[in-house]
Structure formats: C-alpha cells, structure tokens
Amino acid sequence: MPSKSVKSILTLAKAKVGERLRVLSICPDCPECVRLRELGFYDRAEVRKISDGAAIICSLLGMRVAIGRDLGEHVRVERIAA
Amino acid sequence: MNPFLDQFAVAALIGGALAFFVVRFLRKRAGGKSCGGDCGCGTTKPGKPGRS
Amino acid sequence: MAGPAPAPDAPTREVTRHVAIAGNPNCGKSTIFNALTGLRQKVGNYPGVTVEKKTGRFFGSHGEPMELLDLPGSYSLQVRSPDEAVARDVLLGRLPGVPRPDVIICVVDASNLERNLYLVAQMLELHIPVVVALNMVDVAEKNGVVIDLMALREKLCVPVIPMVGTAGVGFIELRQAVSRSPLPAPTICAQMPIVLERETMALAKQLPVAPEVARGEALLLLTLHDEALDALAHHDRTIIDLTRSTQQRLTASGIDPLSAPVDARYAWIGQVCAAALHKGAGHDSASLSDQLDGWLTHRVWGWIAFLGIMALMFFCIFTVAQYPMDWIDGATAVLADFVKAKMPDTDLRGLLTDGVIAGVGGVVVFLPQILVLFFFLGILEDTGYMARAAFIMDRLMSKVGLHGKSFIPMLSSLACAIPGIMATRTIENRKDRLVTILVAPLMSCSARWQVYAVMIAVLLPSGSAWLKAGIILGMYLLGLVTALLMAWLFKKKLLKGETPMLLLEMPPYRVPSFKSIALRMWERAGLFLRRAGTVILALSILLWALATYPKPANADATPAEALAHSAAGRMGHAIEPLIAPLGYDWKIGIGLIGSFAAREVFVSTMSIVYNVESNDQDTAPLRDTMLGEKRADGRPVFTPLVCLGLMVFYVLAMQCISTVAIVRRETNSWFWPLFQIAYMTGLAWIGAFIVYQGGRLLGFQ
C-alpha cells in the first residue's frame, strides 16, 4: 500500500538519500540516542541524508554524522518539501 | 693491537650494553613512564610538567 | 621595559593559573595548545586523537606563568567513553592530583557553531570562568557563515576571541583574555524547565561536593541511564537512590530527565544563533565533501577505493623506498669492509663488524620504508579519510560484534600497536575496548615490516615489485582477518555483549598539511634512529656475545661449530624440537628467542648469527647469506615454505615487550597481557605449522 499520509512520517533509516528531513522524535531510552540528541538530533532539527548503505551518513548543523542503520530506526523524521 | 686491550674493549662494550639495560629498567621502574618515547611507536611523548 | 623582565622559561616561578583547554573533537584544540605552549603534539583528524593527558606551560600577556591542560576532545560532559570521562572529571575537580582549572578555554569550530555551542552551554554551568576561542573563522567565512561577534559575546556573557589557530591569528587576544584579573564566573544561560531546575537544586543540596559544582554535578547525575547509575563509582548508594527517585518524579510530571536538559540547551543555542549567526546562501547545497563522500563511502566504490588506497600505499613503500634502502645497504657493507681491512682478526673486530655494524645496519636499512608508511598514514589521518575507513569497515566490524570505531585503533596499529591501543580510549563500551586491545597487535605494525621485507627478499630475490607488494598485502590481510576472527571469538565466548550501534562524526575533508606530516616523519625518524642507536645497539652487542661465547676448546673449530657451541647456539638447540615441525633450524630459533622483546631484533639477530658464522672478508647482504644457507643434508634452509611460515609466524606472534607494557597499563591487570601473549604465540605456532606442513602435504617445497 503506497503511503500517502498527509505528513509522511518515517524513520531515518527508511528515508531516501538526498531528502531533507525534520527530526520528530528519538527514542528516549538508549544511551546512543541521548548522544544523538546532544549531537544535534533534537526535536525539530533539520537533517539531510547524504548516503545510505550499511550505515547512514547525515548532514546536520553543517557537519556529517555516520549512524548505523539500526540506530537510524530509532530516529523518526518527516520529509520537508525541498 | 695488544690482545689484552682487545679483550678489555670487548668486555667494556658488553658490560656497557648490560649496564644500559639495567639502568633503563631501574629508571622505568622509578619514573613509571608511560610510552617511554623510545618504543619507536612514533607517538609523541606527553608533556613533562614535573621535570626539573 | 618596566621592571624585571620575566624569564620566559624560569621553571621555578609559581604557576598563577591552571587553564584547561576543552572542545569538541576536530575543532583545532591541539593546534591552539601547541601554539600556546610550543610543545609538539600529534594533530590528527579522527575523533579522539588527544588520548593522553597533555600539559604545558604558557605565559599570560604580562609574562605570568600558567599551566595549560589539554583535555580530550568531547562532545558533551554526559560522557560515553573513558576519554570524555577524563575531561568531565578534570572539570568537576574529581581527578586526584589534577587541580580544578581556574579558567577554561573552550575551543569552538566557527564553521560548526551550533553543535559546538552545546559543550559551551555545559561549560557555562560549571561555575568556572570560560573564554571562548572561536577557531577556524576563515573556514566559516569561506562557507558563507557570518558570525556577529558582538551579539555572540552579549549572548554568552563571556569573552569570545575569533581565531585562526593554524595561521597564528588571535593568540595575543586569547592570552589577554585568559590573563584578565579577576575573571568573572559565567552566568548559566540555558534555562531548564522549572520542575527540573527545582529538582536539580534539591538533589544538589544533598551532594557531598563543593557548592559551586553541585548543580552541574546534580544535572549530570539526573541525565544518567539506569546502567550508568549502577556503574557509578564516586557516589554512594544513597545518592544513587536519591537520583533514581528524582528521575521517577520528573518522569511522572512529564519531563524526561535525559532529554529535557539537552532540549533546553539547544533551545538556548537556537536563540544565540538567531542573534549571532547568519548563514549565506548555498550553505545547504551539496559541498565537495558531500560529493566525495558519495563515492568514498559508497558500498561498492568505497571498498574499491579503500583497497586501492591500501594497495597503492604498499606498492609505493616498495618502489619509492628501494633506492635509499640500497644506498644504506651499500654504505653498511662498505663500512664493515673498511673495518675488516683496517683491523686484525680479533674479537673486537668481530664485535664491531658482526655485532654492531651488522645488527644496527640491518635495522636502519628499513628507515625509508617506515617513513613512507608514516607519510601515507599521516595523509589518511589529516585528510579525514580515517573516519571514512571506520565507516566502511563498520559493516565488517559489526559482523564480529564490534563498532566501526574499533577499526581506527586497528588502522593505527599498522604503524605501531602502542598508539593503536591508546586510541581505544574513544571506544565507549569496556568489553568492546578490551576486545579491540586484544586483537589490535595482530595488525601488522611497522616493526614486522622489517621481518617481512627480509623474508620476501629471500623468497623472491628477483620478483616484481607488484608480486612482492601482493604477498606483503596478503600478510597484512592475514593479520586483519585473524584479528576479526579472534574479535568475533572473544565477543562470542569471553566478553559477551551486544553489538554497539555506529555513531561517528565524519570530519570534513581537508587538504593535509605537508609541513605537519613532514614534522611527524622527522620525529619518527629521530625516534627510530635513537632506538637503533640505543636499544638495538646494546642488544646487538649482547647477542653477538651470546653467539660468540663460550668459545669451543678446540681452536681449529669451524665457525659453524663455534656458533653451535656458543650460548645462543645452545639456546637455539634447546628449542629446536619445538620449532622443528615448523621447518626451522636452531639458528632461526636463535632469531625467535632474540626477537621476543621486539620483532625487528629478528633481523639483526639473523645478521649477527650468519656473520659470526661466516669467515668472509667481504660482507654479503643478509639476503644472499640466507639464500645460501644449507642444512646438514645440503637442502636449503630458507625454502619458500619456511619463508612464508616465518612471515605468518611474525604476523600472529606478540613478540613486543612495549605492547605488553601498554596493555598492562591500559587494562590495569596482568591477566590480559599474559593471556594475549599466550593466545598470540599459540596462533603463531599453529599458523606456521599449517603453512609448512600443509604446504609439504600439497607437494610444495
């Protein structure tokens, strides 16, 4: 079923390369996620996905961060119109 | 060359080499140095604040 | 000049201030530290290069001496690695013997202001005067980032000094700011939610720490996880329970104690940036770094690029370094022949030519190759490629239960296991760190290089450079594969734990500073030569003595008989039964024993053994002597299988006292280094056995 919800909510791991995204929430529990938050993945932060493979590379706040796909599943994002 | 002098020089060199390791060992034990800088690893030594 | 001029390096003068320099990784902290203190240090590009505690003295604008402490790079005081814990503990005055700093110089990367301000926000909560060093303003400008300094100073309420650390800009102002007296304590900027603030203050009152750090400490406690709270060592049970109940109350009132402070700080950072930061157009467009990353971290192209870079590196080591190596080889032979011609045939002449010149010369000849290796590693570090290598390797590393970050220590171990093991301090999880320490020495370090180079010269006296590079690359790969397999085994059986999730900052690609790389190579050459002139020299003399004395009673004994009669010969014979299944004779046994302290001694031992044995007036290169070496039954000793087996043995064996010492220090136990020696020596024996016996079964020589 094609997802045609008004606000397309997805995880960072599932987003496409090159998309501009906005962080909606990060799971509050694991220590990695707290560090992600401290690195700038706070709620409503803007992220761009640069590369996707075994791991994801994102650009935010003018820097690049590599995140494992499993960790990428913990970050819920929405697309921003380019 | 005098054979005695020759033997003496050899003994002195071997003694010197032994002394080198003994002194090195004692200094390491006394100083508790980290990466002694002579491991050849290329890491720069940390600063020596307490050196007098 | 008024008054007595301060003597710039009078060590007796009291330190007036303790200054700590803190900041995110890759913000240019080390450059500023170096420029202020004049102490040379390694400036790398992967997260956490500053793993040692580094201090130095510098002078304020009026010549007052101050002590500068370089803290490990950290993203936050809510620590995740032993490295960051050091920074936090110093700033909270927890570290015994390290005074709590009077001033913090917080280095901030101007091109990445928002993220860097997070640490500043935490520093401001510590009640220590802060001076913000706004570094790399030139890069920021190039990226179209405009920073309103006045607005930034006003928002932060602390001195902000624009700087270009690499070009020496801003240091006078920085010294002035740090020397100012009195330095006002900063005001806390990030407003926490009211409930959180109230609970924090209540907890702070209960803490047995100085009142000025109590709030910061309480806030850090509240942001700790369950596991982290349990592992807490410097607070007693009541405080931990108190923290837990406070956390529960906060959660009940709808505030997540872990994320609320982070969000509050970023809210404040948002206000600061709205006032002081203006990004030019085009900032969001894909930069050159992004495009490069598209290729270099690609799942196919990335691997090809990685393997290509490695292959190129090893090929260059062979071709470029060959010329200077030939010169050194020639010079050593000329020197030995000169001494032989000038002196009568006595013990002293033997000691000088067969011991000193052969032993030291046999090691010094590898200097060019090692310098080329360090040149490449320096470039990989300085360009920022190291972090990409970690990224590419994460997939492989996670298969064995480790983090991609564990690959950085392993890559550093290509130079030497010691910096590699020290670099494991950036690994958050204790078990993962231990596993990385255990397998890092399996990566082929530069000392092994010398063994490989000699063995390959014997194996392929006239092979092509590509073939030689290929075999050496194979040895490196063998080390890597074994390291991965052992890591998997350790993670599975010995140090069980979940595979950590990858989280790694990728620094932007930078043009490497050839000056800094040349400086490092220069330092490296100095260290290498000093080692050759001291340890190797002394060892060579002793080894020569062992290979010469006691002399046989029969004065007409052949050199071979004399060697067999000597102490070294007897030791070699003693271990012969152990190494005979590997195809080694007792002379190689001498080399194995001699190199137990350090691998490269194998080469000098072999030089000494074969030179002592030969009676020639001319000094032949070690390679030719080894090629001509025959067993009692006339078969050559160094058959291809023996050469390959020896290389495999050295790939897998521990054979390094310095590494044992550093593992002892880093693990704070004798168990792990002894375990490491045992398992690696066992692996080495098995590996060499498989190569030799397996090869023979397959019909090879």
Outline of the structure:
The complex is a heterotrimer of chains A (82), B (52) and C (701). Chain B is mostly helical and 52 residues long.
What does the model show?
The complex is a heterotrimer of chains A (82), B (52) and C (701). Chain A has helices at residues 31-38, 69-72; strands at residues 9-11, 20-26, 46-52, 55-60, 63-68, 75-79. With 82 residues, chain A is mainly beta. Among the domains of chain C are: 17-179, P-loop containing nucleotide triphosphate hydrolases (Rossmann fold, 3-Layer(aba) Sandwich), CATH 3.40.50; 194-279, Orthogonal Bundle (Helix Hairpins), CATH 1.10.287.1770; 514-697, no CATH class. Helices cover 60% and strands 6% of the residues of chain C. A six-stranded mixed beta sheet of chain C has the order 2-3-1-4-5-7, with helices on both faces. In chain C, strands 6-8 form a two-stranded antiparallel ribbon. Chain C is elongated and about 95 Å long. Chain A binds chain C through residues 20, 26, 28, 30-32, 34-40, 42-43, 45, 48, 50-51, 53-55, 57, 59, 61-68, 70-71, and chain C through 75-76, 78, 80, 111-112, 114-115, 118, 143, 145, 223, 225, 227-228, 256, 258-259, 262-263, 266, 283-284, 286, 289-290, 293-294, 297-299, 302, 387, 390-391, 394-395, 398, 404, 428, 500-508. Strand 5 (63-68) of chain A pairs antiparallel with strand 9 (503-506) of chain C, so a sheet runs across the interface.
